[in-house]
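User:
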Amino acid sequence: MNPALAPSPAPFARDDGRAALWTLSPQPVPYPDAVSVMEDRVEALIEGRSEEMVWLLEHPALYTAGVSARPEDLLQPDRLPVFPAARGGKHTYHGPGQRVVYVMLDLRRRRQDVRAFVAALEAWLIETLASLGVLGAVRPGRVGVWVDVGAEERKIAAVGLKLRRWVSFHGISLNVAPDLNDFAGIVPCGIAEHGVTSLAALGAPADMARVDLALRDAFERQFGATRVGPPPL
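Assistant: Predicted structure:
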C-alpha cells in the first residue's frame, strides 16, 4: 500500500491494539441497573479483571441530574422519574427512541487527556451524523453536538462523562426519534436559549439499526477496533 493512502491511526486507539467489546441491549434498561453495571465494570477495569466495553441501549423515559445540575432547571419535577447521575453536566432526558451509548474505556492504555477525549467523542458523533446526511458541529463553550435548523441552533447529541482513575463511564446520547415533548420538563444541559432536535425531526434516517451501524463505523475511526459481545443485561 502507498503510505500516503494508508488510513490514519485512530487517535484514541489502545496502545496494544486490543478491541473493545461492542454490546447492545435490545430492551429498555432501567437507569439504576445501568449504573450498577457501569460501576462494576469500571472497578474491574481498574483492577485489570475485565475488558473495555461500549454499551448501546435505550432507557425508559426519565431525567438525570448531573453533578452540576441546578434545581431551577427541573421545570416539571413530576413529569418523569428523576435520577442523580455521577457524570458531569446538568439535567438531561433519556427515553425510547434515543440511543444512549455508555463508553467504558481504559485511557491508561489510550491517551490520558480529558479534553482530547471529549473532543474525540464529539468527533465520533459528528462523523456518525455525516454518514446519515446531517451536518453536526460543536459550539464554543457548549459540550455536545449541534445542528442548524433554519436560523436556530438545536442540540442533537449530548456528552456526559465520568472518569475514575482514567477509566471512563457514562458517555453519549443521540436523539434518533425520541418524544421531543419530554424535553420540556427540563432545561436541557442548562441551556435555555437553544432547543433540541432529532434525526427524525430533521427528516434524516431514523432507523435505530442503521444508526447503530453508523455509530460503530465512526467509533472505530476514533477509538480503534471493536468486537461484538453479549450485552451485560
